[in-house]
Amino acid sequence: MGARLLDGETLAVKIKEGLKKEIAQLGAPHLVAVQVGENPASRVYIKQQKKSCEEMGLTYELKEFPADISLEDLSYAIEELNKDKRITGIILQMPLPAHLDARAIQIEIAPHKDVEGLHPVNMGMLVYGNPRLAPPTALGAIELLKSSGVNLKGKEVIVVGHSEIVGKPLALLLLASQLESATPTVCHIATRDLKFHTKRADILFVAVGKAGLIKADMIKEGAIVIDIGINRVPMLDEKGKPVLNEKGKPKKKTVGDVEFEAAKEICSYISPVPGGVGPLTVTMLIKNTLECAKLQKAG
Ligand code: NAD
């Protein structure tokens, strides 16, 4: 026996097909990424975002600012982007240099250009149960769950992780319906007995960033498991020794937060890492850009 895989790649292709048609009708929306200073990790994201946008008929532009820019100057630059009618959406690349308060900048982005769904107005709409622009990773995780065909009504859902970009919006999305909502519980670093909660989950979302946090004995038989975590860990051979590359350095692989091989013997559905939520995150970013274009068109 083994769980069925929730294949994010295939689902993303399907959703993108639908979005492409809408994008063509709306004209090419224009996404701007704001990068402050140098950061190798966000360079990788920028490259991926640009590729995905262009494949979908969106235009993507990177605006770079020096690492020592003041909060006032960056706010002014964002204000200019807000006013520019050619720009559909704005992404603020993280992390920002330590002297800049990310929230203070995020709030400056106009709510109708907030493709990351992090502006308090959009967060507020989510609390109202009327999500307009929600964080793409949380949206992607919900899409992947829905692809299992599960009926959410009343289901015990455990969300592990309570960040603003994943755990909290995920819990709110699960509560969005008046009568058909699931029953989410949010666990986090201060949760006393994580296993007590995960073990009773019909649906388990994990977004922490700790490889191996969720072991098979923490999962209820037949549960649906959505692993959002992304971790780079050393590859090991059959004897448990690190596999080395040609330069003699340990080779690495990407894994989630769930012990995948053991877990898939217990649950009914599981999302792999990579190839699960990841491809849907960028798809939902594009969907949000489209939502922004519609909001701007509607005035
Ligand atoms: P974060 O660091 O902001 O939040 C981590 C959360 O985990 C916190 O809420 C914290 O309380 C909780 N936590 C930490 N240790 C815990 C423990 N021992 N038990 C229970 N909870 C614990 O991280 P984030 O930005 O929300 O990202 C979480 C993970 O999701 C990371 O691995 C990140 O790379 C990944 N991620 C994936 C995608 C994707 O597209 N698949 C997108 C965003 C983030």
Considering the chains and any ligands shown, give keywords for the structure.
299 residues; alpha/beta; Rossmann fold; 2 domains; 6-stranded parallel sheet; 3-stranded parallel sheet; binds nicotinamide-adenine-dinucleotide
Secondary structure layout:
Blueprint: E1 4-5, H1 8-26, E2 30-36, H2 40-55, E3 59-65, H3 71-83, E4 89-92, H4 102-106, H5 120-127, H6 136-146, E5 156-160, H7 167-174, E6 183-187, H8 194-198, E7 203-206, E8 224-227, E9 231-234, E10 252-255, H9 260-263, E11 269-270, H10 277-298
Parallel strand pairs: 1-11, 2-3, 2-4, 5-6, 5-7, 7-8, 8-11
Antiparallel strand pairs: 9-10
The structure holds nicotinamide-adenine-dinucleotide (NAD).
Nicotinamide-adenine-dinucleotide is lined by residues 137, 160-163, 165-167, 187-189, 191, 194, 207-210, 213, 228-231, 277-278, 281.
Question: How is this structure best described in words?
Answer:
- It contains ten helices and eleven strands.
- The chain folds into two domains: 26-127 and 282-292, Leucine Dehydrogenase, chain A, domain 1 (Rossmann fold), CATH 3.40.50.10860; 136-277, NAD(P)-binding Rossmann-like Domain (Rossmann fold), CATH 3.40.50.
- A six-stranded parallel beta sheet has the order 1-11-8-7-5-6. Strands 3-2-4 form a three-stranded parallel beta sheet, sandwiched between helices. A two-stranded antiparallel sheet has the order 9-10.
- Helices cover 37% and strands 16% of the residues.
- The protein has helices spanning 8-26, 40-55, 71-83, 102-106, 120-127, 136-146, 167-174, 194-198, 260-263, 277-298, and strands spanning 4-5, 30-36, 59-65, 89-92, 156-160, 183-187, 203-206, 224-227, 231-234, 252-255, 269-270.
- It is an alpha/beta fold.
- The structure holds nicotinamide-adenine-dinucleotide (NAD).
- The site of nicotinamide-adenine-dinucleotide has 25 residues, from helix 10.
